[in-house]
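Support request, please re-run this one:
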Amino acid sequence: MNDKYFLENNLFDTHFLEKLNKNGEDISDIFNSVKSLYDKDKFSHYNEASLETVFIHKIFNFLGYEFLYEENINFQGQLFKPDNTLFASDKLKDEFAKDNSKLENILLFCESK
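Re-run finished. Output below.
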């Protein structure tokens, strides 16, 4: 079975996956680490919060992201509470934690379902 079997589905296509690693870096160690964590039978018994802790947060670590879990975000007068707020570095995360008006520090949000 080829490695892309786990990635090619209704969310991603081959073209997207090839563009994702445009530098041609060898990401097989990261991919194998993520694959080794995946246990469909075990995960089917977990609730969302447990799955985030034992799987999704570990993937963020493998990929080198820093994150805050269920952090309140004020944006355009509305309060949001995404499952995960990701940052490119620990420094950016810490700056945002001290002053949550620094929205430019946020890399992206991840909703885990």
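The longest strand covers residues 66-69. The helical segments are 14-20, 28-37, 40-43, 48-63, 90-98.
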